[in-house]
Amino acid sequence: MKEKTVAFHRKKIVYDHSQWELLDSIRKKAITVMEKISDFQPILYGSVARGDVHKNSDIDFFIEHMPETYLLEMALEDIGIKERCIIQATPWHLVKGSITLFGGETITFPITESKRKEIEFYYFGGAIELHDLVKGKRMPGVDKRLILIRPLEDGHMEEEITGREAEVSKILNVSIDIVRERIQVLSRRDKIGRTGVYLNRTLMKDESFEQVLKEICDKDSNVRRRG
Fold first, then answer.
1. Cβ-contact 64, 119 below 8 angstroms
2. How many other CB atoms sit within 10 Å of the CB of residue 209?
3. What's the rounded Cα separation, in Å, for the pair 223 and 226?
4. Which sequence spans correspond to the domains of the chain?
5. What digits encode the pLDDT tens for the residues 3-46?
6. SS3 (DSSP) at 37
7. In sequence order, what E strands does 25-110 have?
8. Structure pTM?
């Protein structure tokens, strides 16, 4: 179900035993993957980093710097790669590689030079590194309702962020520009719905990310501009 943005919201959520068990179970799966790709310094982002998980929460990772993709794929061989894609949200956005594992986990990484805001996007939603994940830490972040999730010892606090952009940017250690941009994008999505992505190319088994990116750039000036 699509999550609507929420205004004038402040609420404390106390976790029961089943919520802590669910969080621990999902995080153990995340740690297994992160340990396999630790050389690439991945972050885990979203609800699993914040702690406000549900049974269908996605386990999503992001690698900030362009990796040697064949080395990344080799590191994931034991787990099993289900799908590899090249994606771009709009002609102006970062071109990314995406690897989906058979367990449903997704690893995303830039395959063209990234801009600061494009990296901060992942920290806006809450992001955590492996060593902090192993210690059981949780990180603040903003969910798709534009609600700031602030971890507490017994659960978390939910707070709406509109009108608090400067404060939220300091809490999350991101620029105020990304906070304003996400508010604009998610509020607009409430009104007109989600639009399709500009590029979503699934790779065949014998294709490499670099090879397919070059082929796309040769044909598409928008992708070539970001390449």
1. yes
2. 24
3. 5
4. 16-140+193-226
5. 666 666 899 999 999 999 999 999 999 999 999 999 999 999 99
6. coil
7. 43-45, 60-62, 81-88, 96-101, 106-110
8. 0.93
